[in-house]
Amino acid sequence: MTLPLSPDELLSTTRSVRKRLDLDRPVPIELVRECVEVAVQAPTGGNRQSWHWMVVTDPGLRAEIGKYYQQAFDRYRNSPTYGGDVSEHSDERRAVQARVTSSAEYLAERMGDVPVHVIACIEAGEELPASNQAGLWGSLLPAAWSFQLAARARGLGSAWTTLHLRYEKEISELLGIPLNVRQGVLLPTAYYTGDTFKPATREPLDTVLHMDRW
């Protein structure tokens, strides 16, 4: 059963869910499988379909991933890029950014408690290519976004995060991921609290839209 959302509504209300993830309600694994079934319909370069999907529900493994994530977040929190520099933006934009950073801190503290961790991976070799990697990740990340859309349509929330990649090797060893398979994104997934989501506030389109020339 999916929610009665129009395509535009689904696309504009699939948000990064952190504080509103329901940490106490179990997620049926069949529902997660449905979302992955949708995800693997995404385009992939050369139709190679070289993605892999780690779904982690074991409490001990989730706790270990949570510890690595907290360590990565602590390093990020002490970096110059933490929260983004929005000093030149409006009061409204700064308020939004404050809420985002607060929710990110919450997720870092509770990552290990999120019922399902989905890690989207791709066969890439032990060493990533030194040249433009758009082709590689372009064969995985659209599918990861499709997973989030499918989850939203089924009443689940998720958050897109890559902070764990600071400890990619350690997490791969923890989960038995082969050396030639690289992680692309971690999607903590759970039911969400509250009723629904609304579109986010964005900068005016004409500040980022360029026609023919920059």
Question: Summed up, what is this model?
Answer:
Residues 13-178 form the Nitroreductase domain. With 214 residues, the protein is an alpha+beta fold.
Structure description:
It is built from seven helices and four strands, in the order ααβααβααβαβ. The protein has 214 residues and is of the alpha+beta class. It has one domain: 3-Layer(aba) Sandwich (NADH Oxidase). A four-stranded antiparallel β-sheet has the order 1-2-4-3. The longest helix is centred in the middle third of the chain and has 20 residues. The model has no long low-confidence stretch (mean pLDDT 93). Pfam families: Nitroreductase (PF00881). Keywords: Oxidoreductase.
Secondary-structure map with pairings?
Layout: H1 7-12, H2 29-39, E1 51-56, H3 59-77, H4 91-110, E2 116-123, H5 134-137, H6 141-153, E3 156-158, H7 168-175, E4 181-191
Helix pairs in contact: 2-6, 3-4, 3-7
Task: State the main characteristics.
NADH Oxidase; single chain; 214 residues; four-stranded antiparallel sheet; alpha+beta; 13% strand; 4 strands
- Whole-Å distance between the termini? 45 Å
Count of extended strands? 4
Low-confidence stretches: none
Q: Measured on Cα atoms, how large is the radius of gyration?
A: 18 Å
| Global morphology | globular
- Number of helical runs? 7
Query: Sheet with the most strands?
Result: 4 strands, antiparallel
β-sheet strand percentage: 5-15%
CATH fourth-tier homologous superfamily: NADH Oxidase
Summarize model confidence as the mean pLDDT.
93
According to CATH, what is the topology?
NADH Oxidase
